[in-house]
Amino acid sequence: MKVVKFGGSSLASGKQLEKVFQIVVSDPERKVVVVSAPGKRYSEDEKVTDLLIECADLCLQNKDPKEKFDAVIERYAAIAEELYLDDDIINELEEDLFRRLKADKSDPDKFMDLLKASGEDNNAKLVAAYFRKQGVEAHYVNPKEAGLLVTAEPGNAQVLPEAYDRLFELRNRSGIIIFPGFFGYSAEGDVFTFSRSGSDITGSILANGMKAELYENFTDVDAVYSVNPFIVNRPKEIKELTYREMRELSYAGFTVLHDEALVPAFRAGIPVQIKNTNNPSAPGTKIVYERNNTNGPVVGIASDEGFCSIYVSKYLMNREVGFGRRLLAILESFGLSYEHTPSGIDDISVILRENQFAPGMEEKIIERIKTELDADEVVIEHSLALIMVVGEGMRHNIGTTARASKALAKAGVNIEMINQGSSEVSMMFGVKEIDEKRAVQALYDEFFAAVTV
Amino acid sequence: MKVVKFGGSSLASGKQLEKVFQIVVSDPERKVVVVSAPGKRYSEDEKVTDLLIECADLCLQNKDPKEKFDAVIERYAAIAEELYLDDDIINELEEDLFRRLKADKSDPDKFMDLLKASGEDNNAKLVAAYFRKQGVEAHYVNPKEAGLLVTAEPGNAQVLPEAYDRLFELRNRSGIIIFPGFFGYSAEGDVFTFSRSGSDITGSILANGMKAELYENFTDVDAVYSVNPFIVNRPKEIKELTYREMRELSYAGFTVLHDEALVPAFRAGIPVQIKNTNNPSAPGTKIVYERNNTNGPVVGIASDEGFCSIYVSKYLMNREVGFGRRLLAILESFGLSYEHTPSGIDDISVILRENQFAPGMEEKIIERIKTELDADEVVIEHSLALIMVVGEGMRHNIGTTARASKALAKAGVNIEMINQGSSEVSMMFGVKEIDEKRAVQALYDEFFAAVTV
């Protein structure tokens, strides 16, 4: 049994829905279809979710939401018309949205969640109607009825553990289940949405709860690339990668799948297949628990800018039990989260995203580290990029580090920092931002040039 | 003005004292001579300090210390005889030691310190007597009279800040000052010794307090080697290195100078010259605040065994503010100090010395990390060696990492871990202990082969 999720661009028009239908019915194992709200049809188009947010904002400001309301309904109506569906379904969606607009607004965040969630919820009803019109048994299933219980956190709901057992019962339903992504219900029966990429999360939760063999995630790219195509021209596609590799890559700029969405599937060991709705015969990329390392040590290279390092040195630092912990506690008290802490004997650098700094915070941090830890030197260096070279195969591969650092040296890139954990699934290089693109290209050439299609 | 310190082997016999005298008088800037207790004359010989410890132990057990007492006095007497000194000085030392034996034993640690300190104290009197016999104005100066105030911690005294100003007054004394190393006096007037290499500490404190231009440390090697001579045959000597380089090297097995001893000199920016009493014309090694990098990026390579890594992985660890700090706090609660914390996105390794583990502690640590931090995986790997490649020149040298890691790869050494801070004064490689010697040799060949004498 497979759980299949389609993203907004896969559901943006009637023509796209026809593709979705063909994909689902071409494999009888595709039992559950998780749908997003209709996305953009062209680059200037508005997503239904964005229209709904504007609509909710107008309501909360006591302004007339009619224009946005109509725009939302118009999107559904256009799809219905394209697919020759009768008016009943559109009337149903219109009534639903109208009811939501009249809901209690005393908690604006809850009201916002109720409106946002309608994008997926109503789209699921529309998709189910279309599937039925095509002569297939298909049922819209509401997350409340299915038992998708979540915490009462607007825009950041977390699935509750008891939801999984209840979702398992969905296996007993007949026909194809069309399930709206992005939201669940609190114990009190209120709608709460997940964070960003919420439909991916829904699919992942359903795959876990229903013990699916595979979670298929249909999007609009053929596969995950081994490197950012804006840096390297026509890079190699990744056929298979592990959760850990995906996670390390997505950390530094890979955004095909939001990594938090994978957690429920990851915990249940269910593989995730990324495929293209517009090119379903392309093999796509499979995210698995373990894989054979047959394609060299490196599976992908990711990079991200906007880091800085706080360098702290103190003679005999190494002898002070608790120095590192106290340093991290100071940063934590400023609400800063950090990425890495490479260290020498008497120095330690803390790497963090520089967008976390509020004005004046840097000076305060330096002051506190100097006085509280009696540090000899505290220096903040800005505009660093982190480059992750990722691959489970690196673990058993003598010389990967040598190849990577030699490639960087040849490209004239100075390595500001290296951090390689004992996991050896990734190697991190810190370089200056101006060197980032050159560094990524050099590493790609070193590890992929020979195997590029 | 220079402070000159001589180690135990430089003062083990009359013949050695003659060398010391010639060295001191050959340079009128050598104003202060810090002396250790007489060391070994041959490899099976006993150091005076060790004899004194045995002597003190016997006293504390209410046993007869006569045999050890006589052995100590015999060492001084042999030197005096060799140098044709008259009996007065030996009688004086004998009386002093005899008085100490009768001191209060209610605090055994304080009694031990009082006896241990006599080795240096009485040797300073002997050396002063010999210098005077040679016709030079030389005065034994007692640390109490000079104001060398320390904390009342037996075997681990710390200099008090007010001592420095008082020691500056020594500049006004006429003649050569012969100053015993290894101990100072508490505010209550009791003797307390420094930790290991205590005479080096005394010299460093005097150099700071007296604002010396140079602190000369005479020992029994020509220079600091660039690598352990037990691993690499006839390695290159280091002419000049910075405090930071010395510190990083001494961390991993370089033991010519105990690094804590350098702190007072380091704080005052006073260079330290290491020289050989038995070959004073050899240039030795100079430890400086800054140096020109004229000899390639790497100044030395050190290695040390006996490390282990605690590998902790948790999916989405990176999003948890405070994860690293809480992990370090758990280790701290076991009294463990750690060396480095290389990390990936969802994993972190803590490198520490494995001799810190008490029996059963490992299991408890793993259990606590798993339950308190909800970690997915906790694995302890043993028998690791850390190799430090050290050099201030690495900072501006593109390609040092590439050269080092390529050399290791060519030697068939798998790099378990890399940690390079943004200071770039050192690069740390973690390897399996069985690979240590091969790795060090390979790195030495890479960075020193062309320049070896």
From TrEMBL, chains A, B:
Its EC number is 2.7.2.4. GO terms for cellular component: cytosol. It holds the Pfam family AA_kinase. Pathway: Amino-acid biosynthesis; L-lysine biosynthesis via DAP pathway; (S)-tetrahydrodipicolinate from L-aspartate: step 1/4; Amino-acid biosynthesis; L-threonine biosynthesis; L-threonine from L-aspartate: step 1/5; Amino-acid biosynthesis; L-methionine biosynthesis via de novo pathway; L-homoserine from L-aspartate: step 1/3. It catalyses: L-aspartate + ATP = 4-phospho-L-aspartate + ADP. Keywords: Amino-acid biosynthesis, ATP-binding, Diaminopimelate biosynthesis, Kinase, Lysine biosynthesis, Nucleotide-binding, Transferase. Substrate binds at T49, E120. Residues 389-453 form the ACT domain. Gene3D superfamilies: Acetylglutamate kinase-like, Aspartokinase, catalytic domain, VC0802-like. The keyword Amino-acid biosynthesis applies. The keyword ATP-binding applies. GO terms for molecular function: aspartate kinase activity; ATP binding. GO terms for biological process: diaminopimelate biosynthetic process; homoserine biosynthetic process; lysine biosynthetic process via diaminopimelate; threonine biosynthetic process. It is an enzyme of class 2 (transferase). ATP binds at K5, F6, G7, G8, T219, D220, Y225. It comes from the Bacteria. Belongs to the aspartokinase family. Catalyzes the phosphorylation of the beta-carboxyl group of aspartic acid with ATP to yield 4-phospho-L-aspartate, which is involved in the branched biosynthetic pathway leading to the biosynthesis of amino acids threonine, isoleucine and methionine. This is Aspartokinase. It comes from Cytobacillus depressus.
